[in-house]
Amino acid sequence: MYALEQVKYYFWHLMAARNKKTEDGFVKRLREVVIKVATNNVSRFANTLRLNQSLVNKYVTGKTEPGLVFFQKLIQEFPETDLHWLLTGESKKTMKKQIERTFENYASRLSQLPPKQLENVLALLEAVIETQLKTAKRKK
């Protein structure tokens, strides 16, 4: 299950991406979730989430944007839901390709550095990673 911090991140990501195209895409993807998990039954979907059916119907029709509570309940009841895809339209496969392209770009740039500079950059990266790991352990 997602941590509350991740749900908050995705919620604010949705709020930041408020242009019409993104909203239309979000509504379409939300309908896909309802079809998948509640066989296209908004009433069943709302009951499962313990939310008002009228309010959930407004989310599904695009009349109202869902809030943080909706996303928390969605992930609690349907943990298999890909929030990143729901909010952005990007699948994990798309994300993986973007990460790979970014990695390849950095690898290419690093390979062009003189050996001493490369050594310094790698030492800095190791220090950053070590700090991140320590921070992550403390948060658990």
Description:
The model has no long low-confidence stretch (mean pLDDT 81). 79% of the residues lie in helices and 0% in strands. The chain starts with a helix and ends with a helix. The chain is elongated and about 65 Å long. It has helices spanning 4-16, 20-38, 42-49, 53-61, 68-77, 83-88, 92-111, 115-139. Helix 1 (4-16) crosses helix 5. The chain is mainly alpha-helical. The longest helix has 25 residues, at 115-139.
| Outline | elongated
Low-confidence stretches: none
Strand tally:
0
Chain-averaged pLDDT: 81
Order of helices and strands: HHHHHHHH
Assess the beta-strand content as a share of residues: under 5%
N-to-C CA distance: 14 Å
Total number of helices: 8
What is the multimeric organization of the chains shown? single chain
Radius of gyration: 20 Å
Kindly name the structural category.
mainly alpha
**Main beta-sheet strand count, sense and barrel state:** none
Percentage of residues in helical conformation: over 70%
